[in-house]
Structure prediction request, 86 residues.
Amino acid sequence: MGKNPSDAILITKFVDMGIVTGRWPLVQSTRPFLKEEWPIPKFGSPNPLLPELGFVREYEQGYGGFRMIRETVVKQRKLLICQKMV
Prediction:
């Protein structure tokens, strides 16, 4: 059974210590992983100092891990719309 991006129930950023320590099981798939089918989504977060604003961050993956390529300040309403599009 292959996995597709539309099958995802949660899109979030995390570290891999749960996998490394064995607390998170690996879900096996017979389908090869194609990075092009799983683009990195935009991540939104509120601004703790200005509640009416938030941040949308875009990342790219390189040889050294992930690197933030863009951070945009948006109104909270736009932040919620961005999160629903993911």
Remarks:
- Residues 5-85 form one domain.
- The first strand starts at residue 43 and ends at 46.
